[in-house]
Amino acid sequence: MQTRICKASGKEFLIFDRDIEYYRKLSGLFPYLPEITLPTLCPEERTRRRFSFRNERRLFYRTCGLTGRRIVSNYSPESPYTIYSQEAWWSDEWNPFKYGRDIDFSRPFFEQFNELNKIVPQISLNVVKSERCEFNSYIGECKNCYQVAGSVYCEDCYYGSPYYSKDCVDSLLIRDCTLCYECVACDRCYGCNFCQDCVGSNDLYFCYDLKACRNCIGCAGLRNVEYHIFNKKYSKENYEKWKRENLDMENPEKVNKILEELKRLKLEIPHQYAICEKTENVTGNYIYESKNTHYAFDVKKCEDCSYVAQVVDMKDCYDNNYVEENEACYEYMGSYRNNRVLFSLMCCTTSDSLYSAYCISSSNLFGCVSVRHKQYCILNKQYDRDSYFTTVRRLADHMRETGEWGEFFPMSISPFPYEHTVAKDYF
Fold first, then answer.
1. Using an 8 Å Cβ cutoff, are 305 and 296 in contact?
2. Quick check: 355 and 367 in contact, CB under 8 A?
3. 32, 58, 133, 426: which is deepest, by most CB within 10 A?
4. Alpha carbon of 116 to those of 66, 284, 294: distances in Å?
5. Looking at the whole model, is its pTM more than 0.85?
6. pLDDT at residue 226 tops 90
7. Please, what is the Cα angle at 291 between 287 and 296, to 5 degrees?
8. Where are the alpha helices (DSSP H) in 145-279?
9. Is residue 150's pLDDT more than 90?
10. Are strands 318-324 and 330-333 parallel, antiparallel or unpaired?
11. Are 203 and 209 in contact (CB under 8 A)?
12. What is the pLDDT of residues 306-358, one digit of tens each?
């Protein structure tokens, strides 16, 4: 274990033996590159840096750079970036290699990447394989959704951040839920309203920390029960009678009365130090079905991961956010189904790539933007296989000399104002 000083905050942070082993293992996946250096920022500052590149909820009207049509985008009209509508960006009417350039070894790499990133067309909103989802950002394989962010495999959901859910409104980090309203951190729930930390339950109202329960109102900390109101057992008939007489969702006075009683119950029941379900050797909070996962928050089905948040179905990943189905990815944020992608943003179904953004179904990329179905490319320029590996090694050595190697993109080249990003939301 090593103690280091974070170069951003000036605070001490630890690099554990398991972390050092991970970086060594990661370097073995890229034998043609210098070793992955140990982090110079603490986990919080690394997260803040990644989050500064993500604008989820500030949407603007602007003009498509290809068609001239009015579009919705998370890039403001004043942004210097080239923005295409989703239809135009996915079309064959433009070529990302038109913007390719040679590496200038007399200048820092991030400076050159930033210049490329500004002129290569960006997609107006990151919406992948979705239908009727025009006012959303960073979603994949969704249908009929509105104002959701970071969601995958959702249908008919509005306002929030659901995953694998259907017919849910006003949610925060719910998974595998249906017909839920105003729910927070719930998993596998059906027909629940105003609930938090509930799992495997249905037909709940104003409940907290219920598991495998149904038909409950204003309850907290219960397990495997039904027909309870304020943690007291009722017959089915009396439960339905109380519900008819007292549960009026349109009456603020009655709603507040239930909330006040729930608040009292929440203070009386024991609370878990962390929400961890079906886990082994984990640290963090809101961890489900995971193993050997540390410093993790809002994760599910993860193994051998650390410093991750809001991720699902991951293996051998460090410093990942807002992703699903990744393996052996490091300092990555954005989309899903990637393998061995490092220091990158919003790449999808991509492998063996570094320092790239918005690339789709590609491999062996370095410093590329909006490249699709290609391999062996650097700064959007095509190379043959041997030249690619030789040039990438030279470029990585150059970055090591400039102090850029092993670091994620600096916040200074984010396309979004800090106050529009999730970095501002969290930090």
1. yes
2. yes
3. 133
4. 18, 38, 36
5. yes
6. yes
7. 40
8. 236-246, 252-268
9. no
10. parallel
11. no
12. 999 999 999 999 999 999 999 999 999 988 899 999 999 999 999 999 999 99
